[in-house]
Design brief:
- The chain is globular, with a radius of gyration of 19 Å.
- A six-stranded mixed sheet has the order 2-1-3-5-6-4, with helices on both faces.
- It contains eleven helices and twelve strands.
- The protein is of the alpha/beta class.
- α9 links the parallel β11 and β12.
- 40% of the residues lie in helices and 20% in strands.
- The structure holds NADP nicotinamide-adenine-dinucleotide phosphate.
- The site of NADP nicotinamide-adenine-dinucleotide phosphate has 26 residues, from α5, α6 and α10.
Protein backbone atom coordinates (compact mmCIF):
# COMPACT_ATOMS: atom_id res chain seq x y z
CA UNK A 1 0.00 0.00 0.00
CA UNK A 2 1.12 3.55 -0.61
CA UNK A 3 1.08 6.42 1.84
CA UNK A 4 -1.87 8.65 0.92
CA UNK A 5 -0.71 11.93 -0.52
CA UNK A 6 -1.19 14.92 1.79
CA UNK A 7 -4.19 16.89 0.51
CA UNK A 8 -6.62 19.44 1.91
CA UNK A 9 -8.55 16.53 3.42
CA UNK A 10 -5.65 14.95 5.33
CA UNK A 11 -6.47 14.65 9.03
CA UNK A 12 -3.94 15.40 11.75
CA UNK A 13 -3.32 13.23 14.81
CA UNK A 14 -0.35 13.76 17.07
CA UNK A 15 1.46 13.16 20.35
CA UNK A 16 1.80 15.85 23.03
CA UNK A 17 4.26 15.56 25.92
CA UNK A 18 7.94 16.04 26.69
CA UNK A 19 10.19 14.44 25.58
CA UNK A 20 8.46 12.92 22.54
CA UNK A 21 11.17 12.64 19.87
CA UNK A 22 12.02 9.03 20.92
CA UNK A 23 8.42 7.82 20.60
CA UNK A 24 7.53 4.80 18.47
CA UNK A 25 3.95 6.13 18.03
CA UNK A 26 4.56 8.10 14.77
CA UNK A 27 6.03 5.00 13.09
CA UNK A 28 3.29 2.71 14.38
CA UNK A 29 0.35 4.96 13.45
CA UNK A 30 1.69 6.23 10.11
CA UNK A 31 2.46 2.65 9.05
CA UNK A 32 -1.11 1.65 10.00
CA UNK A 33 -2.60 4.61 8.08
CA UNK A 34 -0.47 3.60 5.11
CA UNK A 35 -1.49 -0.05 5.33
CA UNK A 36 -5.18 0.90 5.28
CA UNK A 37 -4.76 3.84 2.85
CA UNK A 38 -6.29 6.24 5.38
CA UNK A 39 -5.89 10.01 4.92
CA UNK A 40 -4.20 10.72 8.27
CA UNK A 41 -0.71 11.80 9.43
CA UNK A 42 0.74 11.42 12.94
CA UNK A 43 3.28 13.97 14.24
CA UNK A 44 4.99 14.65 17.60
CA UNK A 45 4.92 18.01 19.40
CA UNK A 46 7.11 18.65 22.43
CA UNK A 47 4.71 20.33 24.87
CA UNK A 48 5.07 20.77 28.63
CA UNK A 49 2.25 21.10 31.15
CA UNK A 50 2.27 24.92 31.19
CA UNK A 51 1.60 25.05 27.42
CA UNK A 52 -1.06 22.33 27.29
CA UNK A 53 -4.07 24.66 27.26
CA UNK A 54 -2.72 26.57 24.25
CA UNK A 55 -1.66 23.41 22.42
CA UNK A 56 -5.05 21.78 22.93
CA UNK A 57 -6.96 24.90 21.81
CA UNK A 58 -4.78 25.08 18.67
CA UNK A 59 -5.57 21.43 17.81
CA UNK A 60 -9.27 22.07 18.36
CA UNK A 61 -9.09 25.19 16.13
CA UNK A 62 -7.20 23.31 13.39
CA UNK A 63 -9.79 20.53 13.40
CA UNK A 64 -7.31 17.76 14.31
CA UNK A 65 -8.93 14.31 14.61
CA UNK A 66 -7.34 13.74 17.99
CA UNK A 67 -4.09 13.17 19.82
CA UNK A 68 -2.16 11.10 22.34
CA UNK A 69 -0.73 12.44 25.58
CA UNK A 70 2.37 11.11 27.28
CA UNK A 71 4.39 12.17 30.34
CA UNK A 72 4.11 14.75 31.86
CA UNK A 73 0.79 15.98 30.44
CA UNK A 74 -1.64 13.07 30.99
CA UNK A 75 -3.14 14.43 34.24
CA UNK A 76 -3.35 17.99 32.86
CA UNK A 77 -5.32 16.64 29.90
CA UNK A 78 -7.88 15.05 32.22
CA UNK A 79 -8.61 18.59 33.48
CA UNK A 80 -8.87 20.04 29.96
CA UNK A 81 -11.14 17.41 28.38
CA UNK A 82 -14.83 18.21 27.78
CA UNK A 83 -15.79 14.61 28.57
CA UNK A 84 -13.98 11.62 30.09
CA UNK A 85 -14.44 7.88 29.54
CA UNK A 86 -15.23 5.96 32.76
CA UNK A 87 -11.65 4.62 32.92
CA UNK A 88 -10.04 8.04 32.27
CA UNK A 89 -12.24 9.59 34.98
CA UNK A 90 -11.22 6.97 37.54
CA UNK A 91 -7.54 7.05 36.56
CA UNK A 92 -7.48 10.87 36.48
CA UNK A 93 -5.28 10.82 33.38
CA UNK A 94 -5.84 10.86 29.62
CA UNK A 95 -3.56 9.32 27.00
CA UNK A 96 -5.92 9.56 24.00
CA UNK A 97 -8.21 12.38 22.89
CA UNK A 98 -10.80 12.24 20.12
CA UNK A 99 -12.03 15.61 18.83
CA UNK A 100 -15.68 15.22 17.91
CA UNK A 101 -17.51 18.36 16.65
CA UNK A 102 -14.99 20.51 18.50
CA UNK A 103 -15.43 18.59 21.78
CA UNK A 104 -12.46 16.92 23.43
CA UNK A 105 -13.29 13.37 24.51
CA UNK A 106 -10.63 12.00 26.86
CA UNK A 107 -9.83 8.28 27.05
CA UNK A 108 -7.13 6.19 28.68
CA UNK A 109 -6.01 3.18 26.61
CA UNK A 110 -2.97 2.17 28.75
CA UNK A 111 -4.97 -0.30 30.83
CA UNK A 112 -6.80 -1.59 27.74
CA UNK A 113 -3.39 -2.14 26.13
CA UNK A 114 -2.15 -4.07 29.14
CA UNK A 115 -5.25 -6.30 29.36
CA UNK A 116 -4.96 -7.02 25.63
CA UNK A 117 -1.28 -7.91 26.06
CA UNK A 118 -2.25 -10.52 28.67
CA UNK A 119 -4.64 -12.09 26.13
CA UNK A 120 -2.01 -11.87 23.39
CA UNK A 121 0.39 -13.76 25.66
CA UNK A 122 -2.25 -16.50 25.82
CA UNK A 123 -3.75 -15.98 29.29
CA UNK A 124 -7.08 -15.08 30.85
CA UNK A 125 -7.07 -13.34 34.24
CA UNK A 126 -10.79 -12.59 34.53
CA UNK A 127 -12.02 -13.89 37.92
CA UNK A 128 -8.41 -14.27 39.13
CA UNK A 129 -6.18 -12.40 41.56
CA UNK A 130 -3.42 -9.96 40.50
CA UNK A 131 -0.41 -8.73 42.44
CA UNK A 132 0.47 -5.29 41.06
CA UNK A 133 3.74 -3.49 41.82
CA UNK A 134 3.58 0.32 41.66
CA UNK A 135 1.01 3.07 42.12
CA UNK A 136 2.11 5.54 39.43
CA UNK A 137 0.35 6.45 36.18
CA UNK A 138 0.70 3.09 34.45
CA UNK A 139 -0.12 1.07 37.57
CA UNK A 140 -3.26 3.13 38.16
CA UNK A 141 -4.41 2.61 34.57
CA UNK A 142 -3.81 -1.16 34.85
CA UNK A 143 -5.52 -1.41 38.24
CA UNK A 144 -8.63 0.43 36.99
CA UNK A 145 -8.93 -1.50 33.72
CA UNK A 146 -8.26 -4.88 35.33
CA UNK A 147 -10.95 -4.17 37.94
CA UNK A 148 -13.44 -2.96 35.30
CA UNK A 149 -12.66 -6.03 33.13
CA UNK A 150 -13.49 -8.51 35.92
CA UNK A 151 -10.24 -9.33 37.72
CA UNK A 152 -11.52 -10.56 41.09
CA UNK A 153 -8.90 -9.23 43.48
CA UNK A 154 -5.88 -6.91 43.21
CA UNK A 155 -3.19 -6.33 45.83
CA UNK A 156 -1.02 -3.32 44.99
CA UNK A 157 2.43 -2.84 46.50
CA UNK A 158 4.14 0.57 46.65
CA UNK A 159 6.45 2.54 48.92
CA UNK A 160 4.63 4.62 51.54
CA UNK A 161 4.87 7.73 49.37
CA UNK A 162 2.22 10.20 48.12
CA UNK A 163 1.08 7.78 45.42
CA UNK A 164 0.38 5.07 48.00
CA UNK A 165 -2.30 7.23 49.67
CA UNK A 166 -3.70 8.42 46.35
CA UNK A 167 -4.13 4.79 45.23
CA UNK A 168 -5.76 3.93 48.56
CA UNK A 169 -8.33 6.72 48.02
CA UNK A 170 -9.01 5.56 44.44
CA UNK A 171 -9.51 1.98 45.63
CA UNK A 172 -12.51 2.97 47.76
CA UNK A 173 -14.33 4.34 44.68
CA UNK A 174 -13.12 1.63 42.31
CA UNK A 175 -14.19 -1.16 44.62
CA UNK A 176 -17.75 0.19 44.58
CA UNK A 177 -17.81 0.72 40.81
CA UNK A 178 -16.28 -2.62 39.83
CA UNK A 179 -16.91 -5.12 42.63
CA UNK A 180 -13.19 -6.04 42.55
CA UNK A 181 -11.55 -6.59 45.99
CA UNK A 182 -8.69 -4.11 46.32
CA UNK A 183 -5.97 -3.51 48.89
CA UNK A 184 -2.62 -1.74 49.01
CA UNK A 185 0.44 -2.81 51.01
CA UNK A 186 3.91 -1.46 51.53
CA UNK A 187 6.37 -2.72 48.92
CA UNK A 188 8.88 -3.58 51.66
CA UNK A 189 6.41 -5.96 53.39
CA UNK A 190 7.93 -9.19 52.10
CA UNK A 191 5.59 -11.42 54.11
CA UNK A 192 2.50 -9.77 52.60
CA UNK A 193 4.08 -9.95 49.13
CA UNK A 194 4.86 -13.66 49.50
CA UNK A 195 1.29 -14.34 50.64
CA UNK A 196 -0.20 -12.30 47.80
CA UNK A 197 1.97 -14.09 45.20
CA UNK A 198 0.93 -17.49 46.53
CA UNK A 199 -2.74 -16.54 45.86
CA UNK A 200 -2.24 -14.75 42.52
CA UNK A 201 -2.55 -15.85 38.90
CA UNK A 202 -0.44 -12.91 37.72
CA UNK A 203 2.32 -10.62 38.99
CA UNK A 204 2.58 -7.29 37.14
CA UNK A 205 5.49 -4.92 37.53
CA UNK A 206 4.29 -1.39 36.79
CA UNK A 207 7.12 0.37 38.65
CA UNK A 208 10.06 1.76 36.70
CA UNK A 209 12.45 -0.50 38.64
CA UNK A 210 14.55 -2.48 36.17
CA UNK A 211 14.20 -0.02 33.31
CA UNK A 212 17.34 0.85 31.34
CA UNK A 213 19.91 2.12 32.34
CA UNK A 214 19.18 0.42 35.71
CA UNK A 215 18.80 -3.04 34.12
CA UNK A 216 20.22 -4.82 37.18
CA UNK A 217 17.46 -3.67 39.54
CA UNK A 218 14.60 -5.95 40.57
CA UNK A 219 11.37 -4.65 42.19
CA UNK A 220 11.02 -7.70 44.49
CA UNK A 221 13.57 -9.64 46.59
CA UNK A 222 15.32 -12.11 44.30
CA UNK A 223 14.92 -14.96 46.77
CA UNK A 224 11.14 -14.66 47.14
CA UNK A 225 9.33 -17.87 46.09
CA UNK A 226 7.50 -17.55 42.77
CA UNK A 227 4.83 -20.28 42.32
CA UNK A 228 5.48 -22.21 39.08
CA UNK A 229 2.16 -21.33 37.45
CA UNK A 230 2.36 -17.62 38.35
CA UNK A 231 2.32 -15.47 35.18
CA UNK A 232 5.00 -12.79 35.54
CA UNK A 233 4.66 -9.65 33.44
CA UNK A 234 6.75 -6.53 33.29
CA UNK A 235 5.39 -3.47 31.50
CA UNK A 236 8.96 -2.30 30.92
CA UNK A 237 10.12 -3.00 27.35
CA UNK A 238 13.65 -1.59 27.56
CA UNK A 239 15.40 -3.95 28.24
CA UNK A 240 13.22 -6.67 26.67
CA UNK A 241 14.11 -9.08 29.48
CA UNK A 242 14.27 -7.30 32.85
CA UNK A 243 15.84 -8.76 35.97
CA UNK A 244 12.30 -9.67 37.13
CA UNK A 245 11.65 -11.63 33.92
CA UNK A 246 15.02 -13.39 34.32
CA UNK A 247 13.87 -14.39 37.80
CA UNK A 248 10.58 -15.68 36.36
CA UNK A 249 12.50 -17.73 33.80
CA UNK A 250 14.76 -19.17 36.51
CA UNK A 251 11.66 -20.19 38.52
CA UNK A 252 9.98 -21.79 35.49
CA UNK A 253 7.14 -19.21 35.38
CA UNK A 254 5.54 -18.04 32.14
CA UNK A 255 6.43 -14.37 31.47
CA UNK A 256 6.13 -11.47 29.01
CA UNK A 257 7.32 -7.87 28.72
CA UNK A 258 5.69 -4.48 27.96
CA UNK A 259 6.05 -4.49 24.16
CA UNK A 260 2.49 -5.60 23.45
CA UNK A 261 1.02 -3.19 26.01
CA UNK A 262 2.67 -0.43 23.98
CA UNK A 263 1.30 -1.84 20.72
CA UNK A 264 -2.24 -2.40 21.99
CA UNK A 265 -2.63 0.97 23.76
CA UNK A 266 -1.83 2.41 20.32
CA UNK A 267 -4.20 0.05 18.56
CA UNK A 268 -7.04 1.14 20.88
CA UNK A 269 -6.29 4.83 20.18
CA UNK A 270 -6.17 4.12 16.43
CA UNK A 271 -9.62 2.54 16.59
CA UNK A 272 -11.03 5.53 18.52
CA UNK A 273 -9.79 7.98 15.85
CA UNK A 274 -10.51 5.99 12.69
CA UNK A 275 -13.27 3.56 13.69
CA UNK A 276 -11.08 0.85 12.13
CA UNK A 277 -8.93 -1.92 13.58
CA UNK A 278 -5.20 -1.36 13.43
CA UNK A 279 -3.52 -4.03 11.25
CA UNK A 280 -1.58 -5.22 14.29
CA UNK A 281 0.01 -8.24 12.64
CA UNK A 282 1.81 -6.05 10.13
CA UNK A 283 2.77 -3.38 12.69
CA UNK A 284 3.98 -6.06 15.11
CA UNK A 285 6.25 -7.63 12.49
CA UNK A 286 7.62 -4.25 11.42
CA UNK A 287 8.26 -2.59 14.79
CA UNK A 288 7.74 -4.99 17.70
CA UNK A 289 9.61 -8.20 16.94
P1 LIG B 1 5.33 6.89 37.32
O1 LIG B 1 3.95 7.45 37.28
O2 LIG B 1 6.46 7.81 37.57
O3 LIG B 1 5.34 5.72 38.45
C1 LIG B 1 6.53 5.08 38.80
C2 LIG B 1 6.24 3.97 39.81
O4 LIG B 1 7.46 3.27 40.06
C3 LIG B 1 5.73 4.47 41.16
O5 LIG B 1 4.88 3.55 41.74
C4 LIG B 1 7.05 4.57 41.96
O6 LIG B 1 6.86 4.48 43.36
C5 LIG B 1 7.75 3.32 41.47
N1 LIG B 1 9.18 3.38 41.69
C6 LIG B 1 10.09 4.15 41.03
N2 LIG B 1 11.33 3.93 41.52
C7 LIG B 1 11.20 3.03 42.53
C8 LIG B 1 12.10 2.38 43.42
N3 LIG B 1 13.41 2.62 43.36
N4 LIG B 1 11.62 1.48 44.29
C9 LIG B 1 10.29 1.21 44.35
N5 LIG B 1 9.37 1.77 43.53
C10 LIG B 1 9.83 2.68 42.64
O7 LIG B 1 5.69 6.14 35.97
P2 LIG B 1 4.68 5.33 34.98
O8 LIG B 1 4.29 6.24 33.89
O9 LIG B 1 3.66 4.69 35.79
O10 LIG B 1 5.70 4.27 34.34
C11 LIG B 1 6.22 3.19 35.09
C12 LIG B 1 7.01 2.26 34.16
O11 LIG B 1 6.13 1.69 33.21
C13 LIG B 1 8.10 2.95 33.36
O12 LIG B 1 9.23 2.09 33.30
C14 LIG B 1 7.51 3.10 31.97
O13 LIG B 1 8.47 3.07 30.95
C15 LIG B 1 6.62 1.85 31.89
N6 LIG B 1 5.45 2.03 31.00
C16 LIG B 1 5.27 1.12 30.01
C17 LIG B 1 4.18 1.25 29.16
C18 LIG B 1 3.98 0.26 28.04
O14 LIG B 1 3.19 0.56 27.13
N7 LIG B 1 4.60 -0.88 28.06
C19 LIG B 1 3.24 2.29 29.36
C20 LIG B 1 3.46 3.18 30.41
C21 LIG B 1 4.57 3.05 31.24
P3 LIG B 1 6.80 5.80 44.31
O15 LIG B 1 5.36 6.15 44.43
O16 LIG B 1 7.37 5.29 45.59
O17 LIG B 1 7.62 6.86 43.67
Amino acid sequence: MEMKEITGHTKLVCLLGSPVAHSVSPMMHNAAFEALSLPYRYLCFDVKENSMKQAVEALRLFGARGFNCTMPVKAAMAELADELSPAARLIGAVNTVVIEDGRLLGHNTDGIGYMQSVKEAGFSIVGEKMTLLGAGGAATAICVQAALDGVKEITVFNCLEERFWKMERLMKVLEQESGCRLEIKELGDTKALEKSLSQSRILTNATSVGMSPHDGACPIPEDIPLPKDLIVSDIIYNPRKTKLLELAEKNGCPYFNGMYMLLYQGAAAFQLWTGMEMPVKEIKERYFE
